[in-house]
Amino acid sequence: MTNPPPAGIYIHIPFCAHKCLYCDFYSITELSLQDAFLEALFREIAATKSLLPFDSLYIGGGTPSILPAQQIGRIIERISCQFNLEETAEITLEVNPGTVAIESLKAYRQMGVTRLNIGVQSFQDSHLRWLGRMHSADAAKDAILMARAAGFDQIGMDLIYGIPGQSRQAWLADLHQAISFDPEHLSCYMLTCEPETPLERMLQRQEFKPMADGAVCDLFETTITELSGQGYPLYEISNFARKDHSPDVNRSRHNQKYWTDVPYLGFGPAAHSYLNPVRYRNHRDIRAYMADLNSGTLPIAEKETLSMEQQLMETVFLGLRTLEGISIKRFEEKSGRPFNILFQELLTDPELKKRITLTPEYCSLTFQGMMVLDSIAGLFVDRI
Ligand code: SF4
What is the C-alpha R_g of the chain? Predict the structure, then answer.
């Protein structure tokens, strides 16, 4: 039997200079709470014990780069002292253009950050303004150039497509601009109107017309074709890694854990943790989070033990997001049921043939299938 892969650690920094219109991540703009938050975070880390080996640390948010650089160093240090974080661990920091300088980027590198993920979103000022982003396209380009100059050899960028009125040409221009910086990783997210965001309220007030589903699918297809042609094959529905000498060398080690049933610990408000079969979530409110930690309690808002059925549903839903797909061996070990018999009806359906690929090891979706991921995953889940 092979050893299970090492686990991951996520830290949620819940501060942003300003809220973007589409964002449903938990973050606040009261920057004066930073010191009190960090004290609470360090308490949470000190109160958590785990003997697992860890090979990834992801500092996300929010806007982690809004904290002074030495605070990022303190977080890495506390994590390294408390947990068995491998020396060769991937340590990712999310940064936003406009919140970094060459000095802070060099400091991150020296503190052990191995990978930067830059929230670019668009290289067009009109789109950035529409999304409610604080920075300009020039600030995004500066951040990327400074990150390279600071010595980062693992740079990822986040981009958004499906912005109302965005043409195929405009999206291609964003992709080409991104590739011109030769990043190791690209995340391309489809714009969605999440509940309770300003964008959703704008939609309800009919202040804009969302892009039609067919046009969004066209942009998704454009993304896959263009990026794979330029050496960035898709490895998850929103993620693309530069191929280099091996297809997985530039993939996000940390994010892959979320899709492959690997345990992770999350710290900070709204952070999730998963220690199979238990999943728990911290308070999505910084004051409730700090109050619990200040009174010696872990800030857990919700904890559930996943039933076997729930675990299998997650295996299917998350597996189908990835290029490799669902590991049939892992599914069968977990469920004790033969995959091909359980899903026979779907696997032999002539209509689904062009959307599902089956090998002896994996069941995955074709790119056509990924365009209707939710409905196909629903068909699998109905049969569990
Ligand atoms: S910077 Fe990121 S986390 Fe902050 S509001 Fe904008 S999208 Fe959300």
Answer: 21
Predicted pLDDT at 245: 85
Average pLDDT estimate for 83-106: 98
Distance, CA 25 to ligand 1 centroid (Å)?
Answer: 7
Residue nearest to atom 3 of ligand 1 (CA): 62
**pTM of the shown model:** 0.96
User: Helix crossing, 168-180 with 213-229: angle to 10°?
Assistant: 30
Question: Which of 348, 339, 338 lies closest to 319, judged by CA?
Answer: 339
Ligand 1 centre to CA of 96 (Å) is: 9
Cβ 94 vs Cβ 61: under 8 Å: yes
Kindly tell me the burial class for residue 19, based on how many C-beta atoms sit within 10 Å of its own C-beta (0-12, 13-18, 19 or more): middle
Nearest CA to 153 out of 72, 234, 221, 250 is that of: 250
Instruction: Please report the atom of ligand 1 found closest to the CA of residue 61.
Output: 3
- Per-residue pLDDT, averaged over 225-238, amounts to 97
Most distant CA atoms of the chain, gap in Å? 60
CA-closest residue to ligand 1 atom 8: 23
